[in-house]
Amino acid sequence: MVNSVNAGLALRMQNTMDMIQILGLVAGACTSVAAVPQFFKTWKTKNVQDISTRMFILYVIGNGLWLTYGIFKSDLPIIITNAIALIINAGMLYLKLRYKNNTVE
User: Fold this and answer.
1) pLDDT digits (tens, 9 = 90+) for 31-66
2) Which listed residue, of 15, 51, 58, 66, carries a Cα 20 to 30 Å from 33's Cα?
3) Which CATH number does the domain 2-98 belong to among 3.40.50.970, 1.10.1200.10, 1.20.1280.290, 1.20.1250.20?
């Protein structure tokens, strides 16, 4: 009887942990891809006049630090979402620097 109770408790804890992992992945995916529309708009228009360089520098630094933290903790949702965000935000920073001298007509 005790073994079946322990097995049931372990199964519920595992299901809860799986849901927490899923929650982390969904939350991270939402914040990670938030800059995608801006990235494609900037790529298409080459207009970076209103884009903050400092903001994307801070995003890149923050994503890099979160990625490092996730690696040390072996936390897959943190690793995946921040790797994606790092790529997107570094891409935005690249576009900002690449097109900073473009004039808007």
Assistant:
1) 889 999 999 999 999 999 999 999 999 999 999 999
2) 15
3) 1.20.1280.290
Spatial distance between the Cα atoms of 48 and 45, rounded to a whole number of angstroms? 8
The residues, any chain, with a CB within 8 Å of residue 49's CB and separated by 6 or more, are 104
Domain boundaries, the chain: 2-98
Residue 82 CA to residue 27 CA, distance in Å, equals 11
Say whether 46 sits in a helix, a strand or coil: coil
CB 99, CB 46: distance < 8 Å: yes
